[in-house]
Task: structure prediction
Amino acid sequence: MEKKSPRRPRRYLRSRITRKLILDTALDVFLIEGYAKTTIAKISQQANVGYGTVYSHFKGKDDILNKVVDNVLDEFYNLLEIPFAPATLDEARDAYRTLVLTSFRLSEQHQPIMKVYQEALGQSESIAGHWHNIKDQFIKTAARSFSYSQEKGLAKSFDIQVVAKAFILMVDRFIWEVVNEREKDLEHIASIIIEMVFHGFFIKE
Result:
């Protein structure tokens, strides 16, 4: 007879529900108040949970905002988990274009909270550090994919770390251009960036 998976304790489920409530409520408060005016007290009051309960789940306001933005980026993180194994240059181009275009579309879709996050980047070292770590992870992922492309003979011989960093920093800059509505034709931007990368780094077929 097949064994049933053990049930999660009710306390664990209540904790998960409370954590989600706090994050959902915090999102609303951040959007209304902005970063500077949002406080743990306002979040706990709006969520109707104790002040200490919020701190039992999160380290503070910055930790909550980082988690909110991480949730926004979940779709992008899922794309990064897909193995990068193109057999042709066209497949590699399509994979990169999908990643870049997804990052822009998510930024546009979640523009209000991304604007709050941009405000926080200029005021909080922990927020800036978190975003720096996110970019570092993207750079490492890009470096691995560039390395794979070199090994398969799809790309020229370049300093992989420098190329990966330049690529991600360029995408990062345009993310904030999209957030601030200075760029609206997302497909055009993504195509230009990818063509720049592929004409400079990859080998023409």
